[in-house]
Amino acid sequence: MTNPNPYAALATDAVCGLSPYEPGMPPAELERRYGISNAVKLASNENPDPLPASVIKAMQTAVEDVTRYPDGGSFVLRDRLAAHLAVEPEQLTLGNGSNDVLVLLAETFLTPQHAAVYDEYSFVVYRLAVQAAGAEARVAPANPADHPQPLGHDLDAMRALVDEKTRLVFIANPNNPTGTWVTDEALRDFISSLPAHVIVVLDEAYFEYARDADAANAIDWLAEYPNLVVVRTFSKAYGLAGLRVGYSVSSAGIAELLNRIRQPFNVNSIAQAAAIAALEEQDWVSASVARNQVEIDRVRSGLEVLGIHCLPSRANFLLAHCGADAAECHDYLLHQGVIVRPVANYGLPEYLRISIGTGAENTRLLEALAGFRNS
Ligand SMILES: *Cc1c(COP(=O)(O)O)cnc(C)c1O
User: Fold this and answer.
1) Which residues, 6+ apart, have CB-to-CB distance to 325 below 8 Å?
2) Could you tell me the pTM of the whole model?
3) Nearest one of 263, 96, 117 to 190, comparing CA atoms
């Protein structure tokens, strides 16, 4: 493979081996490319609902102060978040999105002498963070397609890759891009089985969507498992993807290490203000989650009618099995102004990941897919 970039020879091996994250296409780009208007984006698992007025107001107020640096310790946000989660503020590490926290974990605990474990179909940022740290990536095979959690995490396979060199294990629950989940019992057994030098990074980006009445809260397990780090975000159910605020909850010891290398002002002042206001809007979050449940069922049945089967999902997206013409289907949808996410880069060329949008957006998607089927 020839590398046309003359500076590549100067870069670290870790960086030379990286291919960058491919974000979902912004609607404006699609509109420029194909000369269409009213494109809808169902590609990045954002919350499509309009934000509560209180959150908009908080951002507008914060705008007035952007000549000043933000509060580097995010004092008020940490305090409110700690109260909301019933933990101590010292257990929190705030990030510029939870992506930032995932990278901090890799930078803190991984070196070229160490290894990290993740699933073959899990969130690509794990791979990027591990590779950037120059550490060994151990990729566990996922469940087979006929498993009750098809293509989901196989915790036994992950456990088999853990040894003295292993420092981090990444688990997304529910997982992106599959939407699948692991049971509380299986997760606890897995964490209990690990040696103390292995830190479990439990990525719960879709926690609010996954919640059902009898589900456990992994934050309650922290006292029992000091090597557990729970990572969550304001990007999904809280609707603040564009502002970049995420966090981890861990033992105070782990948080203290992460905070040593965190950039001093990694969460900007508008993001802090919006997250503080959003925490007060739990009814809005619940209503949004309830609307997602109704719509995800409707989209799933609509796809089923078209002969497209989706994996089980406890998140705000579906992984749809489109078969050999998934790429063609993706292209057709783009021409109809509907942006979904191809997942060939995840090793899933026959699937498309479809985020649940507003009712009208989901109807656009179903109509466009029906058009593809009849084309
Ligand atoms: C969306 C997502 C995140 C959140 O990323 P942010 O940086 O907080 O926006 C983290 N993990 C998974 C599995 C995700 O799907």
Assistant:
1) none
2) 0.96
3) 117
